[in-house]
Amino acid sequence: MERERLQKVIAQAGVASRRKAEELIEAGRVTVNGKKVTQLGMKVAPQKDKVAVDGVLLTKEAPVYYVMYKPAGVLSTVSDDKGRQTVVNYIETEARIYPVGRLDYDTTGLLLLTNDGEMASRLMHPRYGVEKEYVAKVEGIPERQLLKQLEAGVKLEDGKTAPARVKLLSLDKRKQTAVIRLIIHEGKNRQVRRMFEAIGHPVIKLKRERYGFLTLAGLQSGQARQLKPFEVRQLKKLTVIKPS
């Protein structure tokens, strides 16, 4: 009987991403056949072993995938202890979906949600180079040399960013603002905002317009749609390592 890592089984059940599943294990919230597991590395037989998270037995859900146009003032989480609106409040489904990565509270635009933890983990991993395209309105008008710094990578407290593609879309000399397109393939916390802060041009407004091949076409703010089968196949192709 084939055995798989415990965190992978939890992720495939739609409970959380693989990384979050590891945190659940280490926090002592997972049991296998009634026994608490706190060490990573355990393998289980999904068809035989009884795995539970917070006392609830896992049942593998059929994978679902949604693309959403996230509004400002909405949290990219499943729930909030302060009762604030979260992205899952906008989607009617029985599946236990959660966002793939995050968009800041005030950031708008494209967000993926799924119960496929394995796929979510792969999409968020920088090794697969999945592009994310943002449009930012920033304070001031950055000089070309500063934009080249963004292209080459800027130093942040958690490391230097990978090379990016940058284009100045428009500027307003009277208001001293600029609109810039930035394409990256990483997903550091608040990365885009911190990149612009690093060159001295803080973000005023930020929107993610593309994730891989997916765009916001046909969606209004607050709307979501389920991905079509061919889109799911295309999404999975993005997480296949390209030969060097």
From TrEMBL:
RNA-binding keyword on record: yes
Highest classification ranks of the organism: Bacteria, Bacillati, Bacillota, Bacilli, Bacillales
Record-linked Pfam families: PseudoU_synth_2 (PF00849), S4 (PF01479)
GO molecular function: RNA binding; rRNA pseudouridine synthase activity
UniProt protein name: Pseudouridine synthase
SUPFAM superfamilies the record matches: Alpha-L RNA-binding motif (SSF55174), Pseudouridine synthase (SSF55120)
InterPro entries tied to this protein: PsdUridine_s_RsuA/RluB/E/F_cat, PsdUridine_synth_cat_dom_sf, PsdUridine_synth_RsuA/RluA, PsdUridine_synth_RsuA/RluB/E/F, PsdUridine_synth_RsuA/RluB_CS, RsuA_PseudoU_synthase, S4_RNA-bd, S4_RNA-bd_sf
GO cellular component terms given for this protein: cytosol
Domain RNA-binding S4, chain residue ranges per copy: 4-62
Broad class of enzyme this protein falls into: isomerase
UniProt-listed GO biological process terms: enzyme-directed rRNA pseudouridine synthesis
CDD domains: PseudoU_synth_RsuA_like, S4
Keywords: Isomerase, RNA-binding
Protein source organism: Shouchella lonarensis
Domain of life: Bacteria
Known EC number: 5.4.99.-
Gene3D superfamilies: Alpha-L RNA-binding motif (3.30.70.1560), Pseudouridine synthase I, catalytic domain, N-terminal subdomain (3.30.70.580), RNA-binding S4 domain (3.10.290.10)
Family per record: Belongs to the pseudouridine synthase RsuA family.
Keyword presence, Isomerase: yes
NCBIfam families reported in the protein's UniProt record: pseudouridine synthase
